[in-house]
């Protein structure tokens, strides 16, 4: 079967309407363009994200179902809370963006990751201009977990996470959820639902519901710039 995807113009950062995304494969919307900061932010503000392999063309997606965590609904299980009391972790924001995104790519290996060198460079540009952010989990001076994503007003679009120690990525998302809620954050977009995300409180939303929420909350920036800061410091109790 032949699929038709509208190619994106190099000098026009607009995307087709998301309701034109394909059903098979679910959410595939457009092809081409580039990973410039202007195009990436246009995509995220429209409920679209890039996802492609090393040898693929640039592909843009808006799936029919979205995994969304409302920060107040993050589920910190009894075992996670118990582990936190015994941990010795410091959680930071924007201390090591380049290392976090590189580790998210490396931990999956070249055959499984979509976080190509081109993608890493593009998101580092977004970080420099204050739109992409990282959360780091430190054990003493060792980076053992983290996540990164893009802030669109009161919505945070999560991209990837990693763990090198038990529960490290869960700690990152848990503490970021609390921090984000304190700032006035409404939703954390996790893109695709998985059992792991469901266990942390993610709910499946229809594309229409997600786009409606995004449009209502994308124009009030709440994370200003990318100043490094500490958002949690745990010591064994």
How is this structure best described in words?
The protein is an alpha+beta fold and 237 residues long. The protein has helices at residues 37-45, 78-86, 97-106, 117-128, 168-183, 195-199, 207-217; strands spanning 7-8, 28-32, 49-50, 59-61, 65-69, 89-93, 132-139, 142-152, 155-163, 187-191, 203-206, 229-233. The N and C termini lie far apart (60 Å). It is globular. It is found in: Cytoplasm.
Number of strands: 12
Order of SSEs, N→C?
Answer: EEHEEEHEHHEEEHEHEHE
State the helix count. Answer: 7
Give the strand content.
Answer: 25-35%
Shape, per Cα inertia axes: globular
**Describe the biggest sheet?**
8 strands, mixed
Assembly status: single chain
Order of strands, main sheet, comes to 11-5-10-9-8-7-6-12
The radius of gyration computed from the alpha-carbon positions, rounded to a whole number of angstroms, is 17 Å
Decide which structural class fits the backbone: alpha+beta
User: How far apart are the termini?
Assistant: 60 Å
Low-confidence stretches: none
- The average pLDDT is 93
Question: What level of helicity do the residues show?
Answer: 25-40%
EC number: 2.3.2.6
Family: Belongs to the L/F-transferase family.
Function: Functions in the N-end rule pathway of protein degradation where it conjugates Leu, Phe and, less efficiently, Met from aminoacyl-tRNAs to the N-termini of proteins containing an N-terminal arginine or lysine.
Enzyme class: transferase
Question: Top keywords for this entry?
Answer:
four-stranded mixed sheet, 12 strands, globular, Leu/Phe-tRNA_Trfase_N, 237 residues, 7 helices, alpha+beta
């Amino acid at each position: 079967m032949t699929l038709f995807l509208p190619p994106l113009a190099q000098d026009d950062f607009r995307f087709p309407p998301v309701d034109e995304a394909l059903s098979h494969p679910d959410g595939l919307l457009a092809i081409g363009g580039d990973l410039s900061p202007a195009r990436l932010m246009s995509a995220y503000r429209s409920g679209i994200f890039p996802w492609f392999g090393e040898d693929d063309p640039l592909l843009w997606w808006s799936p029919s179902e979205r995994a969304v965590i409302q920060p107040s609904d993050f589920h910190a299980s009894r075992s996670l809370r118990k582990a936190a009391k015994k941990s010795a972790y410091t959680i930071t924001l924007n201390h090591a963006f380049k290392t976090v995104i590189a580790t998210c790519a490396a931990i999956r290996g070249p055959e499984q990751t979509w976080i190509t060198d081109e993608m890493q460079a593009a998101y580092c540009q977004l970080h420099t201009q204050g739109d992409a952010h990282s959360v780091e989990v430190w054990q003493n001076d060792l980076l053992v977990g983290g996540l990164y994503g893009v802030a669109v007003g009161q919505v945070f679009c999560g991209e990837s996470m990693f763990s090198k120690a038990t529960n490290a990525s869960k700690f990152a998302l848990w503490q970021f959820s609390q921090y984000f809620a304190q700032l006035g954050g409404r939703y954390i977009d996790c893109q695709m639902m998985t059992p792991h995300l469901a266990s942390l409180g993610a709910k499946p939303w229809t594309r229409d519901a997600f786009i409606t929420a995004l449009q209502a909350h994308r124009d009030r920036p709440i994370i200003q710039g990318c100043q490094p800061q500490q958002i949690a410091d745990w010591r064994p109790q």
